[in-house]
Structure formats: C-alpha cells, structure tokens
Amino acid sequence: MVDSKSAKETDLTQxxxxxxxxxILMGSASDWPIMKAAAQALENLEIPWEARVxxxxxTPERLTEYLRTAEDRGVECLICGAGHAAHLAGVTxxxxxxPVLGVPIASSALQGFDALLATVQMPGGIPVGTLAVGSSGxxxxxxxAAAFFARHDDQVxxxxxxxxEKQSAAVPETPY
Length: 176
Known about the structure:
Elements: H1 4-7, E1 22-26, H2 32-44, E2 49-53, H3 60-70, E3 77-83, H4 88-95, E4 100-105, H5 113-120, E5 129-130, H6 135-150, H7 154-169
Parallel strand pairs: 1-2, 1-3, 3-4, 4-5
Helix pairs in contact: 2-6, 6-7
C-alpha cells in the first residue's frame, strides 16, 4: 500500500493486491475511468481491492466463476458499476451473500438515468446498495465499504477518520 499523497500518483492499472477485501466489477473496460475513483479511494485508505471487467449480459459465465471464488479469496464487499440496462449489480447480488454496492454509469443517451433506475429498483429480497451516478458514486461506494469494515477493523477506522478530518480541514471558512 501507499500513503495518500503517493497513491494519487500511482498507476492503478499496475496495482495488484494478493488478498483483496473489495472486488470492483464493471460491465465494460470503458467504465474504468469512472470506477477507478473507487479504486483510488480504497488505495488511499489502504484497503486491498481488485478490478475486473465482467458483463452481466456478455460474460455471464465469467461472473459466476468470479463469484464462486470471491468469498474464499477474502472479498467482503463488491462494487459493481454499469451503464445502460445496468444489470451487473443485481445479477451479482442474486448470486452471492457478499454485500453489493451499485454504481450507475452515464453511458447512454439517458445520461445514467436508465442505469440508476435499473440499479436501484431491485425486487424485494435481492438488495443492492445504490450510490450516485458516476465517479462520485464510485468514490462513495468505496467509502461506504470502508465504513462497513471500520465497524470491526480499528486500522480502517483510524484511516477513515483521518480522511474525514483532512476533508473537513480542506474546506475554507470564507469564500475569499
């Protein structure tokens, strides 16, 4: 892991964690510019993660195989980003007991509204925690995962509290 300052300079495509706690899944490689906000937030908090391109529609077998091994490999939370019909988070949640956080991505003419509705409108019994459309949603998904972990992991709790303190300190008291 790297500290917050150097993490911002890290080429996240080169980061490989042996024991990821969070799986970041996306429907297309074109979703990475949005989903890397989740990876960056996790990296800054020193929470190991992994990222995979897995389409609910085009690679369903890849999703099933990934989920078959995820829990045994230590994955405790899944962040799924997808646009258009955005079924990745829901299909993922239907196949695992690992908590799933959904990030709608604006990749269609509807600017993410279609993805938001597809992600948030899950039938009762298959929950997906849905965040905002786009990179702020991806970042917040990572911070929500960190908050889950912080309940039982004092180191993550400390780093999350430090992040919040730095974030607050960066807000000026006056506009000038």
